[in-house]
Amino acid sequence: MATGHEAWRTAATEGHLLPQPAARGADADLSKSSAHWIDRGTVAWKVEPSSSLRHSLAFSKKGDITYAKGDLTGDIRIIRLLPGALTEAQKAKWPHLAGHAAFTIDPRDADLAGKASRGQVVAVERDASGALLAATGVQLPGVLDDLHAKAVTADLGPSWSGGTPRLSVWAPTACKVELALHRAPSGGTRTVHAMRRDNGTGVWSVSGQQGWKDRYYTFLVTVYVPAEGKVVTNEVTDPYSLSLAAGSGRSQLVDLSDRSLRPDGWSSLAKPKAVPQEKSSIYELHVRDFSASDTTVPASRRGTYSAFTGDSAGMKELRGLAKDGLTHVHLLPVFDIATVPERRAERTEPGCDLASMPPDSEEQQACVARTAAGDSFNWGYDPLHYTVPEGSYATDPEGSSRIREFRSMVGGLNGAGLRVVMDVVYNHTHAAGQDPTSVLDRIVPGYYHRLLDDGTVASSTCCANTAPEHAMMGKLVVDSVVTWAREYKVDGFRFDLMGHHPKANMLAVRAALDRLTVARDGVDGKSIILYGEGWNFGEVADDARFEQATQANMAGTGIGTFSDRLRDAVRGGSPFDPDPRVQGFGSGLAGAPNGSPANGDEAQQRARLLCYQDLIKVGLAGNLRDYTFTASSGKEVKGSQVGYNGSPAGYTASPGEVVTYIDAHDNETLFDALAYKLPQATTMADRVRMQSLSLATAVLGQGTSFVHAGSERLRSKSLDRNSYDSGDWFNRLLWDCSAGNGFGAGLPPKADNEDKWQYARPLLADPALKPDCAAIGAARARYGELLKIRSSSPVFGLGSLAEVQKRLTFPTSGTSETPGVVTMHLDASGIDPRWKSITVVFNATPEARPQTVAALKGTQVTLHPVQTAGDDAVVKQSTFDPATGTLTVPARTVAVFVQP
């Protein structure tokens, strides 16, 4: 070889240039994808750079690159790579790759990026002689976003102009895309239509005819699939589907503005008055739970959207809650999901006489488990199509009927005085790869899901994690949310595992909603509330890949996050304790020990109780990071200086950024948690009081108040901590008190609860723990009173740190504060026409407790008129001594005092 010239060894075949022995031990695993093509000019790869090594990208349109006999074979073309370095901007955009070696595309090969990305791409490392040292697949999302940046403004899915449809799908790596138009929702004949690619955006489109309306369709996508190691043709539904065949096997071409899809009154739907986030009270409800056990709903409509349009027992309860002050119903996932058969005839329900079995039996859960995969119930956190209503909740799941029924449900709830929140799950899909229920990955393999460093799909969310940090997944999130808001008049969105989204993605959602106007879009986008789970875990934890939408990071955005701080302080321990009897402020730590060694000795219990009280104060003040108050230590502290498992308890910038709750669909219901934690001998009357006291900390605090449906009625899931697939039996929501509350329905399902059965058995077998109508009625009345009190005064919905700091104090806090009692004083002067101040005393102890508030000395203070007019004789025993400013509140009672 002449000096100064380079020879490329492209195959180890006999007679080839520079023949070498087959490389032994070469690291060539093409089933992995460890290199990252982050933009059209840069590749990042975790290898040791060296001037003696040569790097390149090998690509094949045929997808036939394989490793055999020490080298790569196939119809290969080469893109040369030169040693480089990641810029600071690139490191900021790809922080998890900051330590990788970087290579730049040789300028001579720069025009090959587009061609290479439409086939198989392999990163190659060779020594100076050309011998193969390493080869791996290449992750393409970065370069696809760079090459097709204009795609973020493209209209995808079905669109209409003058009655003529157009279909568009983003498939930049595809060799060919065709439209298959079907005459029937399944089977039957089809016609295939060529689609045209726009090279700039990677979008394939076809214009149709008016006769295509309501036809079913699929895409035929010819694309290289890394998991298959070859080019395949996938028949797949539209990620931007707006309607589907029953079973979700085919998309349906519909125009959402069509008159036939609008229920009566839809165009002129009158919504309840918009409520700012800090004044919102939210009721978390599952569509099927709402009516599946309600005999006042016709059997054909139970468990469906249509149950929200009548005058059933459930609807009467919702109207009653709205009258009390509830503002929103939060619906667990109602988009198209993968787990519940949509046709009733295809479902299999438990065949046992569950009601006849003993309350502590293993038989109920065993029977439910046998049909769980094919029954009518699932929480629905398993997305299939993000922007189509779920068909199993429709009386007719075939085609567009579900659209009309969903809209009727929204209208029914709005008519009951309630705005509607959707639980959305854009952080994962039901499946990835070539699975039949994988939609996104069969169109653009390796793009829509977040890949680990070796190219495997991350699954920290329990399923195949999506990657909203990639431009087109982020666009899908925004486009889908806007469709639900504009076309279905949804009033709010709760984001599942929001911490797995970039903060930028959530801000893009907020901005897109804010642009919606009544005049142009039929909805006021600025009135739509946003909140989600800001948990910090998984491969994205601690901003490893981007600035996450986590609790602390969302401060100042106006987007809410759930707070686990007050929840754990009130309930005690955490949802993951091996011993579920760890007590908290609302579950007996204040004077009613249950004997569990997990609670520690008396001194430890007292110290933990006072720490919990500080967490509760921070929660009542909206979890504001800069709110200052006197802690139980006697020190003046900010919310951010109160600790919670190594993190700051206070993290919000304004009260509306926190969602305060004691229970939700996850983990045990509040009643079940109290069943574990309160001494078993606790009377039902006292259990009701502790239930109400616990809920009061969420209802009477600053920020968004959130409750799981049925907690106001002592709802139980028979101690099931994870009822996502536990069927109707364990998830019953009973509006008729004579049927009880669900407690004693058998031991909870083994898969998630067996380790707690030793604690559950004696409780479930105890008939004294099953509430009667009087107990359920009392709990419902107390929750209604709390809602009335909250909604009656603006001081319970302050909108800023400054207002909270000015008006909210804890006057009895400090070194002499009473363990088990929290007293909150609210200055209502100037904003409440009736009261100068409101003082709330939360007494969680088994005795009456006096609380002296100096500011009330010499004033006129009375019990709140809502409590005075109620039927709780105990709270009416509360007293006030004007000579000293002392409020005395009975045991296990929340008393609200007003100063005229």
Layout of strands and helices, then pairs:
Elements: E1 27-29, E2 35-39, E3 42-45, E4 54-60, E5 66-68, E6 71-73, E7 77-84, H1 88-93, E8 101-105, H2 113-116, E9 120-126, E10 132-139, H3 141-147, E11 157-161, E12 164-170, E13 174-182, E14 190-194, E15 196-198, E16 203-207, E17 216-225, E18 230-236, E19 251-252, E20 281-285, H4 287-292, H5 313-324, E21 328-331, E22 335-337, H6 363-371, E23 383-389, H7 401-415, E24 419-424, E25 428-429, E26 464-465, H8 471-488, E27 492-495, H9 503-514, H10 518-521, E28 529-532, E29 560-563, H11 564-571, H12 602-620, E30 628-630, E31 636-638, E32 643-644, E33 647-648, E34 658-661, H13 670-677, H14 684-699, E35 704-708, H15 727-730, H16 750-753, H17 757-764, H18 773-792, H19 801-807, E36 808-809, E37 821-827, E38 837-843, E39 849-852, E40 862-863, H20 865-869, E41 879-881, E42 886-889, E43 893-899
**Percent range of helical residues:** 10-25%
| Weakly predicted, low-confidence segments | 1-24
- The overall strand count is 43
Give me the number of helical elements: 20
- Terminal-residue CA separation: 99 Å
Q: What class do helices, strands and sheet pairing give?
A: alpha+beta
| Global morphology | globular
